[in-house]
Amino acid sequence: MNRFVGCRRLIVRDETKDLSFPVMLMYPTHVPAGTVAMGPYSLEVAPDAPVDGGPLPLVVLSHGGTGTPLAYRTLASHLAQHGYAVAMPEHPGDNRNDQSLTGTIENLVNRPRHLRLAVDALLSDAELGPHLQRDDLAVIGHSIGGYTALALAGGQPWAGPGQKIEVTKDPRVKALVLMAPATGWFGLNEALQDVSVPILLLVAEHDRITPRWQGQLVLDLVPDRAQVTFEIVENAGHFSFLSPFPPQMRSPGFLPASDPTGFDREAFHRTLPEDVRDFLDKVLRGSPSSPPRPAGAVP
């Protein structure tokens, strides 16, 4: 496919909270990409290039707690090169530069709303909107981003008995990709009974942060378990779903760059984007999926 990856940065306004937050959009373009430095990362992108084709399926990606959207650049770039528009908001108050809301109920309320606001802003953008599908949205979420995805798709989270977390379902969501999802808020009162979209559920074998029981909640509580494609990524840890970090950031003290002994993150990130794309192609485009590979297998 002779497509490059374009990128554009938007600022989205949340009038309810009187704040703004950035959203990076990656998408296909015919403009040749170059190496662009974004903080410690290098991306092969064409900034502000025109969008190629459309209407494109829209994917919104919710990063993990205290994280950054750029930690999923490998996956986002792959999807963009293959005809998807990938929106990556930075969750205010719960990102690498600002943890003022991390661990709060307010953050649990805000996160799904900010995904919805990001989608609304993109669809209403005079230049970008005409290139995007309006009613077929997929959400990818890692860790608490998995919580965010489930809440947007109709999950009703609870902070405890009688403590409902106020979230709103977005009917445009047609598919979810959950990577090591944090799901403990959905254990009460049939909390996932209204989540009825196809789900690709990936859990890490050696995850100490969101262990396997959290993924099992999804299997047990969605109304149709047959809608869930479930894989255990052998020997992976919680952070193995993050794109490989630059060499200068890989140190034993930096947990996001650490994996269980023997796990090859670079090899995994040659297959993960393809597996996610196969799933999204089948759900959003009606394309037959490729034959499944064992989780964590390398080509």
Automatic annotation (TrEMBL):
Pfam families for this protein: Abhydrolase_1 (PF00561)
Alphabetized PANTHER family for the sequence: DIENELACTONE HYDROLASE DOMAIN-CONTAINING PROTEIN-RELATED, POLYKETIDE TRANSFERASE AF380
Gene Ontology MF annotations: carboxylic ester hydrolase activity
Domain AB hydrolase-1: from-to ranges: 57-183
Similarity section: Belongs to the AB hydrolase superfamily. FUS2 hydrolase family.
InterPro entries: AB_hydrolase_1, AB_hydrolase_fold, FrsA_esterase, UCP031982_abhydr
Domain of life: Bacteria
Name listed for the protein in its UniProt record: AB hydrolase-1 domain-containing protein
UniProt keyword terms in alphabetical order: Hydrolase
SUPFAM superfamilies: alpha/beta-Hydrolases
